[in-house]
Structures are given as structure tokens and as C-alpha cells.
UniProtKB/TrEMBL annotation:
Known catalytic reactions: L-threonyl-[protein] + ATP = O-phospho-L-threonyl-[protein] + ADP + H(+); L-seryl-[protein] + ATP = O-phospho-L-seryl-[protein] + ADP + H(+)
Lineage top rank: taxon: Eukaryota
Name under which the protein is recorded: non-specific serine/threonine protein kinase
Region (Disordered) residue spans: 22-41, 373-410
SMART domains xref list: S_TKc
Residues given in the record as ATP binding sites: K131
Gene3D superfamilies according to UniProt: Phosphorylase Kinase, domain 1, Transferase(Phosphotransferase) domain 1
């Protein structure tokens, strides 16, 4: 693919921004086709009131050092110069280009393992470098949120931020560990990719649940990811999943509060209905988005696919009525699985998705106390009796119970 950031072309896989109209189920139990005009939704790239772990993200000119004062944010991250990153990416050339999102283009680069200095291709450690596009309206806020959150949060199921670049000009970049297999979105929806087997999909769901449980369970204040979707789940060489893109993350409620009030940002098809309508954000908003990702893993269909038309365009509207009926679940499963999945396990995942997608956030299960242990149990239970079940697709490299990642806090 060409180098999008030097031209005006928009890449096809860039995320769909919110629109002023969203379709939502009117009750938890019906499949309403009604289109609800929610309050005008801000653009995907518009942040009104993001705050970062220990302090408010201030204006655009605030540097990492100021944001991180006293918080530890940014500590341990390398501050790269623009010339170093040019050297690492062959001047952001088309051969280094990986893809494009709302923030900007992403390039592959090479740095020395020990010194983090740029090297030549094939030497040292591979990194992914995101370059804020000039026309990005609020991109600097997202850039700062990424540095602030990922500077402090470390976990096997979160992407690692290696460093950043913020020069005196408008250049804002982020340097991440390179996650070899790219996004879950590409693996689920690109026809050219080999289908993920069912055990892989369950493992990926568990990894995502681990990442979210870690964020939601922080002692001082929960962190709400706010932008969970399959394009923000990256898969490493062993198909371990990592959450990426913390530009919209923000601190959750503390004490007795059930939510924080914010401007509505996120991605159509994934955002929780109450958040879209009221701006009330809670950890349960992430649980809803997780339910949508579970549906994508089960069905192989996109959260929103306007080409399908009507209620079939929105995955939740299309799948929801089938989730509570164990016999109907089989009808919505991804045909690329070729029927190679244990039916009972698929029904259990469907039942969990149904709970995650409840309209009332109070009725959704918590990530750490319910979703994660239930998925782990389901996986473990199946591995004991999987001798009668074989997958037609390559066996997952990971997914063995007992060899999962452990939590680590910074
Ligand atoms: N750390 C990484 N390692 C490897 N590839 C990456 C990494 N980060 C991003 N990519 C690639 O770059 C592409 C664009 O990523 P990006 O996060 O900018 O956009 P997006 O997730 O598609 O959209 P959005 O801006 O809404 O998050 C991804 O599809 C992925 O293939
Ligand atoms: Mg992304």
C-alpha cells in the first residue's frame, strides 16, 4: 500500500467515526429496528475532557514532562528525536508503511535493543511508529493520553510503549513494541487471512478480558479504555492479544460514584447505549464493547457493516435475539469456522455476550469478578474433554490453561 501520510488518500481500514445517528436496542430483550437519534456524537477523534491517571491532561502545548510531574508518567520512556525516527523508518518510506488510523499513519522501524538508537532494517528490535497527521484536530490530546497512560500501565495484554517524539514543531509520534500479526480486525475480516480457529478465538477473548480486568481493578482508580474494538486488539507471534490505543482512555469513577460524565467519543457499533445517550462512562461501558468483540469473534461479522442494510447492519441488533436461545446460537456462528467448535462452549460464550450487552450497565458482569473467570473456566473445562474435538485450522500456539500471563503493575 502507498504511503498515506504523504498523500491525501484515506486508507480503507481506518475506523468509522461516530455519526449523529446511532441504532440502539430500545430494551434489553427486543431487537428494535428503530433508529434513535442520540445527542450529537462528537467525532471519533474529539476529546472533551480526558484526564490521565493522576492528573488532568492540559492544553495542547503541555509537554510530557509537565504531564508526568509527580506521577511517574513518561518515566522509562525514551524521548526520540525526529531525525532518529526518520533514520529508523527509512524516512517514513512506503516500504515501512503498516497502516493508518484516526491518529495518523503507522510505520515499521528498527532500533537497537540496548541503546534504542535507530539501526538499519533487520538489525535490533522492530518497533511500530505512529505519526500524528497534521490535520488531526485533537490528536495531540490523544498523543498525551497515550504517553501518560502507557507510561504507567504495564501488563502482558497491553501494548508496550517504548517512547515518543515531541519536537518543537508539530511533530508528535509514538513508538510501540512491534506486534507481529497486526490487528484482530484484519484476522477476522480480511478474506486473505487464514481463519482463526475457535480455540484461538477463546484465547484472544481471555487475553482481552485480562487486559480490561487489569485496567478496571487498579487500586487507586479504575481506568476505562473507552475504545475497545477489534482494530485495537493486536496479536503477537503466538496470537497473544494486546490492547492498543489509549488515546481515549480516562480515569473511572472513584468512591461511591457509578460513573464519570464525559463528552461522547468512541467508535460506532461498539459504544454502550447509555454512554451514547447520557455521556455517563463507567467500567461497564468497556464491558459492553467487550460483548461486541465477543460477537465479532463468534460470528466473523463486523460491529457495523452498512452494506448489509437494516438491522443486519449493526451486529448487536442482528445477533442479540439469537443469543438467549441455545439452539439458535449455531445459526450466527462464523461459517469460516467450518462447524469446528464445541457447540456447548459456543452457547456459553453467547450467554456471556448476552449479559455483557445488557442495556442497563448494572446488569452487565464485571470484568475481573465475572467475565474473566467465566471465560477461563470455560476454556479449561473444554481442554479436559477436547479429545473428541479437533480444529480444522492450525492449533493455537497458546491457550493452554496454566500458562497464561501474570499481572504486573508498574
Ligand atoms: N504496535 C503495532 N505493531 C504492529 N502493527 C501495528 C501496531 N500498531 C498499529 N499497527 C498497525 O497499524 C494499523 C493502524 O493502526 P491504528 O491504531 O492507527 O488504527 P486503527 O486501530 O485501525 O484505527 P483507530 O485510529 O480508530 O484506532 C493497524 O491496523 C495495525 O495493523
Ligand atoms: Mg487502533
Amino acid at each position: 500500500m502507498g504511503n498515506c501520510c504523504t498523500g491525501s488518500a484515506k486508507c480503507a481500514n481506518a475506523s468509522t467515526p461516530f455519526e449523529s445517528k446511532v441504532t440502539s436496542r430500545s430494551t434489553a430483550s427486543n431487537n428494535s429496528n428503530s433508529t434513535t437519534t442520540a445527542n450529537k456524537l462528537a467525532s471519533r477523534r474529539s476529546i472533551g475532557s480526558s484526564s490521565a491517571l493522576s492528573g488532568q491532561i492540559a492544553g495542547s502545548d503541555v509537554q510530557v514532562q509537565a504531564a508526568s510531574a509527580g506521577t511517574g508518567a513518561g518515566a522509562g520512556l525514551k524521548s526520540f528525536s525526529m531525525s532518529e525516527l526518520r533514520a529508523a523508518t527509512k524516512n517514513f518510506g512506503s516500504t515501512s508503511y503498516l497502516g493508518e488510523g484516526g491518529f495518523g499513519c503507522v510505520y515499521k522501524g528498527w532500533i537497537d535493543e540496548a541503546t534504542l538508537a535507530p539501526t538499519r532494517p533487520g538489525v535490533g528490535r522492530m518497533v511500530a511508529i505512529k505519526k500524528l497527521k497534521e490535520e488531526s484536530f485533537q490528536g495531540h490530546r490523544e498523543w498525551l493520553a497515550e504517553v501518560t497512560y502507557l507510561g504507567q500501565l504495564h501488563h502482558a495484554n497491553l501494548v508496550t510503549l517504548v517512547g515518543y517524539c515531541s519536537d518543537s514543531g508539530a511533530n508528535k509520534l509514538l513508538v510501540y513494541e512491534y506486534v507481529l500479526r497486526g490487528s484482530l480486525e484484519n484476522h477476522l475480516f480480511r478474506r486473505a487471512t487464514q481463519p482463526l480457529s475457535w480455540p484461538m478465538r477463546v484465547s484472544i477473548a481471555i487475553d482481552v478480558a485480562r487486559g480490561l480486568a487489569f485496567l478496571h481493578s487498579r487500586d487507586d482508580s479504575p481506568v476505562i479504555f473507552r475504545d475497545l474494538k477489534s482494530s485495537n486488539v493486536l496479536l503477537d507471534s503466538d496470537y497473544r492479544a494486546k490492547l492498543s490505543d489509549f488515546g481515549l482512555a480516562r480515569n473511572g469513577p472513584t468512591g461511591d460514584k457509578s460513573h464519570v460524565s464525559t463528552r461522547v467519543v468512541g467508535t460506532r457499533g461498539y459504544a454502550a447505549p447509555e454512554y451514547i445517550v447520557t455521556g455517563h462512562l463507567s467500567t461497564k461501558s468497556d464491558v459492553y464493547s467487550f460483548g461486541v468483540v465477543l460477537l465479532e469473534l463468534m460470528t466473523g461479522r463486523r460491529a457495523v457493516d452498512d452494506a448489509r442494510g437494516g438491522s443486519a447492519a449493526t451486529l448487536v441488533d442482528w445477533a442479540y435475539p439469537q443469543l438467549g436461545d441455545r439452539r439458535k446460537v449455531i445459526r450466527i456462528m462464523d461459517t469460516r469456522l467450518g462447524g469446528q467448535y464445541p457447540k456447548k462452549q459456543a452457547q456459553e460464550v453467547a450467554a456471556l455476550a448476552l449479559r455483557c450487552l445488557q442495556n442497563d450497565p448494572k446488569n452487565r458482569p464485571a470484568m475481573a469478578d465475572a467475565v474473566l473467570p467465566e471465560l477461563e473456566q470455560l476454556q479449561q473445562h473444554n481442554s479436559h474433554k477436547s479429545s473428541s474435538y479437533t480444529s480444522s485450522t492450525p492449533a493455537p500456539v497458546h491457550g493452554q490453561p496454566g500458562r497464561r500471563h501474570s499481572k504486573s503493575k508498574s
